[in-house]
Amino acid sequence: MRRQQLIRMLLVAGLLPLIVPVAAEAQSRGRTDGPPGSHIGAGGYEAAGFYRYSAEMQFGAALSERPALSGRDDGPPLSFGAAFSFWGDDWVRLDLSAHHLFHNSQTFFLVGPRFQTGFWPVSASAGVKGGLAIVPDFGIRFAISPQVGAEMLIGDRLVLGLGYALDIPVDTRDSTVVLSHRPHMNMGFRF
């Protein structure tokens, strides 16, 4: 008898951490008995037309201050990339991006926040990303990329923008840094 009670107590103790957050979440929702539209943002409701995700393509120029670590610097001074974003709100989002610099054959995989003014249809943004850079003949390096830009929202979903990024792959063995300037345009779609 005692063994069954012990098993029940352990089962309840194991499920309790799963049950309490769900109950707390259900209680945190706001009231909706105010004037029309007052319930937006009060817990559980969002403004119409707010889309949490976006996908975008980036294309533009890519110029380095000196030859790449590998000595390759023979391609066209172009870059191409893509980004997937999670919008926490109109003023902040988390970007996951990848882009390739054709002039020195470097590829970047970056993640980081981007903060915006939140005023639409035109908004300014700034952010910093960190991640990996694949440098030919040298392998994978840590990279950072501070970025600034401006975007315009057309309708509810289409985003067009201009931006500038400074891509910095760091060679930790001898502290060699090769800066790549990347002015670019972006076209995105929120969903």
Explain this structure.
There is one protein chain. This protein has 191 residues and is mainly beta. The protein folds into 2 domains: 1-45, no CATH class; 53-190, Beta Barrel (Porin). The protein has one helix at residues 2-27; strands at residues 53-61, 63-64, 78-89, 92-101, 106-116, 122-135, 139-154, 158-171, 176-177, 180-190. A hairpin with a 2-residue loop joins β3 (78-89) and β4.
Structural class: mainly beta
Number of structural units classed as domains: 2
| Strands, count | 10
- Strand sequence of the main sheet, in spatial order? 1-3-4-5-6-7-8-10
Secondary-structure map:
Elements: H1 2-27, E1 53-61, E2 63-64, E3 78-89, E4 92-101, E5 106-116, E6 122-135, E7 139-154, E8 158-171, E9 176-177, E10 180-190
Antiparallel strand pairs: 1-3, 1-10, 2-10, 3-4, 4-5, 5-6, 6-7, 7-8, 8-9, 8-10
